[in-house]
Amino acid sequence: MSVTFIASSKLPTPWGVFTMHGFEDSKSGKDHVVLSMGDFTDGAPALARVHSECLTGDALFSMRCDCGYQLQEALKRIAAEGRGALLYLRQEGRGIGLLNKIRAYHLQDAGADTVEANEQLGFEADLREYSMCRPMLDHLGIKTVRLMTNNPRKVNALTEYGVEVAERVPIQTGMNPHNEGYLATKAGKLGHMMDLDNFTQADDVDVNRTKPVDG
């Protein structure tokens, strides 16, 4: 098996204290983590999110995407239930890496959308894969999930790898003037199941501080 459990520790967050589990993926050479809360021994479906790394959104507060908003919302929901897991996968930029993501942003600044930018760089629109999820969930004893996602590809991937998805839970948050084009592209070109009219607007930020960008 290419995914090896390394260690666990407590991770206090603004929403509650999670347990952080670290895994080494010899197939990709990347390290992944799960943030979990609660007991899974009863076998009931666990509220879960499979979240791919987005340094710009998760750590640098970028408003070009909805990633950071989704990350925080997922942790908030898991903490509110007191039970669930967030898989944090090191797949920056839908798999193209950080520097290529910056190159793609440069193309978006010139008018390309997020799909067109990846393709102009010679990549597919989405290079992520999810084979590491099954052993990470197995380590926690999670067999069935209520998956927080708008992306049907994640549902299909987990199902393909033997994880039962009992329910898809929409996670529509973080819309702002800087990512409206990006969200429309995800819905229109990438098939994400989103109702843009029912998105929660970004808050606690000044969304008018800079000129909006498309992408």
Structure description:
It is a single chain. The protein is built from seven helices and nine strands. By secondary structure, the chain is of the alpha/beta class. Helix 6 (152-160) links the parallel strand 6 and strand 7 (164-169). Helix 3 (98-109) packs across helix 4. It is globular, with a radius of gyration of 17 Å. The N and C termini lie far apart (38 Å).
Any key phrases for this structure?
single chain, 215 residues, seven-stranded mixed β-sheet, 7 helices
Structural class: alpha/beta
- Per DSSP, the total helix count is 7
Residue share in β-strands:
25-35%
Please tell me what the overall shape is.
Answer: globular
Spatial strand sequence of the major β-sheet: 1-2-3-5-4-6-7
- Total beta-strand segments: 9
The helical percent reads 25-40%
Q: Give a short account of the largest sheet.
A: 7 strands, mixed
Give the ordered list of helices and strands: EEEEHHEHHHEHEEHE
- Oligomeric form of this entry? single chain
Q: Which spans of ≥5 residues are poorly predicted at pLDDT below 50?
A: 205-215
Helix and strand topology:
Elements: E1 3-13, E2 16-25, E3 30-37, E4 46-52, H1 55-59, H2 67-81, E5 84-89, H3 98-109, H4 114-120, H5 133-140, E6 144-148, H6 152-160, E7 164-169, E8 173-175, H7 180-189, E9 200-201
Parallel strand pairs: 4-5, 4-6, 6-7, 8-9
Antiparallel strand pairs: 1-2, 2-3, 3-5
In short, what is this structure?
This protein has helices at about 55-60, 65-80, 100-110, 115-120, 135-140, 150-160, 180-190, and strands at about 5-15, 15-25, 30-35, 45-50, 85-90, 145-150, 165-170, 175, 200. With about 220 residues, it is an alpha/beta fold.
